[in-house]
Amino acid sequence: DNLLAEKVEQLMEWSSRRSVIRMNGDKFRRFVKAPPRNYSVIVMFTALQPQRQCSVCRQANEEYQVLANSWRYSSAFSNKLFFTIVDYDEGADVFQQLNMNSAPTFMHFPLKGKPKRADTFDLQRIGFAAEQLAKWIADRTDVHIRVFRPPNYSGTIALALLVSLVGGLLYLRRNNLEFIYNKTGWAMAALVCKLVAATVKNKHLGKYYFLGKSQCDLCKGESYFISLLDFEGVNRHVDKDDLLELCTWIFGEPLQGPTSKALKKTK
User: Fold this and answer.
1) Which of 19, 61, 67, 102 satisfies CB 3.0 to 4.6 Å to 130 for a cystine?
2) Does residue 254 have a cis bond before it (omega within 30 degrees)?
3) How far apart are the first and last CA of the chain?
4) What is the pTM of this model?
5) Domain check: are 190 and 110 in the same one?
6) Domain containing 188: what range?
7) Which of 126, 141, 156 is the last residue of a domain?
8) Do 126 and 66 form a contact (C-beta atoms < 8 A)?
9) Tens digit of pLDDT for each residue in 32-65?
């Protein structure tokens, strides 16, 4: 009982300093693997050092931090659940002990018994969004965490800058707006949209990173290559002067309403 109380007290002290507790091999074996334990532990196995070049690890860690902070600062916070992290460069022996050769990986260590198959989060199929992790934790521990995200104004700022740029361009060229019907301009704009869409899609794929090589980077390269091949599709539409069909090709669905009517008038 005294040993258990000491372990819980130490974990609570670490949690008061930071929501995610960093662990090396010794701490992992003492606080996660060794009994007695009356608490559950979520462990993120990762490789965050720059030389590992694991961009997926950094993205997953951001979501993990959001989830851990949501738990730490919620009214339901208790000593029944702790969030920890084991970095490959700080706990390579833990990776070897668990026969683990990929990162990031999320595991739940229950308060009693050994982890089961369902205690390993299916990151490759589900992704690593904080909300998905919270749902998995609720299924494994009955602890429900409401995810709170800090406000992000980057999208609003980017939109404002884009609108300002377009508005300034239209103002400077207000006496000559023929460039709006330039085929090459529409083709380049469509290509940029496709490349951005490919980047955003790959950012949320949640692919595994096998130590030494990133599959996510290969996936991005493939999407960029496909987008470049799609340039032929852009030319096919603009050659026919069909702006409505071009917008349908870009956004994946027909446009409706006033925008559709306005584009039809340009044909």
Assistant:
1) 67
2) no
3) 81
4) 0.62
5) no
6) 182-265
7) 141
8) no
9) 999 999 999 999 999 999 999 999 999 999 999 9
